[in-house]
Each structure stands twice: as structure tokens, then as C-alpha cells.
Amino acid sequence: MAAEPVECSVTIEAAPEVVFPYLTDPARIVEWMGARATLNPKPGGIYRVELPVGFTARGEFLEVDPPRRVVFSWGWEHEGTLVAPGASTVEVDLEPVAGGTRVLLRHHKLGGESASQHRVGWLHYLERLRVAAGGGDPGPDPGPTVAESQSDVP
Prior knowledge:
The protein is α+β, with helices and mostly antiparallel strands. It has helices spanning about 15-20, 20-25, 25-30, 110-135, 145-150; strands at about 5-10, 35-40, 45-50, 55-65, 70-75, 90-95, 100-110.
């Protein structure tokens, strides 16, 4: 039986059309996640985000449906990772709600410890997305905590 996906959500005080570029535009994504990004938001296009602590997430876009949905494969470039590049899948759905957008993120194909570590990381980054896409400044990305940096957490 497949493991349940990691599921996290956040509500942002902005329309989906405002939030969507924060998932697909390299200049926007680094406002809330990572130090550098290479993104080609079309099916088969690269998804690569370098986090400030030396980890790099890499995959490819599988589905891009502005301003409603983005799906990309995901994994880590460093050796010894529990999740190799492209080994898991991240789905992000944007739903208009009163006062803004509900962002629902589902990360599939993670098991055990990796799933709990990614949940912590995604909660951290979705809060930063909430601030950035809502018009605020989440400040420099501190990356994962010391405990998280020894794991496979985004």
C-alpha cells in the first residue's frame, strides 16, 4: 500500500493570479524559497531550486495550469539522499476563497522519516510563501534548522 501524501495548506490574502507566479517564476520563488532557481514552467521543463544551506531540489514540471495548478517531480541532488531527483511528486493547487487563495500542497511518494521531515520543511516554506505572495517580506531564507539540515527536508 502506498504511503499517504504529505499534505499542507495555507491561505494567502491575494488572488490566485497573484500567487501563481510565486510557484513558476525564478525571481518570485526565491523570495520565499531558496537562494537561486532555474525554472522552465512547462511539461518536461526543469525545476531546480538551490536552498541556502547547500541542498538543491531538482525535478521537472509535469503539469502547469495557470493560475490553478502546478505539478512537478522532486528530489535532492546531494549524495545519500532518501529522495533522489524525480523520485517524488509535488502537486500544488490554488483555490480562490473569500479574501484570497487557499494553497494546497500534496507531496507524494515519501515514506516514513522522509515524509515527516518534508512536512516540517513544507510548513516552513508555505508560511514564507503566505507572507511573500501576500505582499510582505519574509526576509532572507534561513533554510532548515540545524536538525532539519541533516535530513531531506525542503
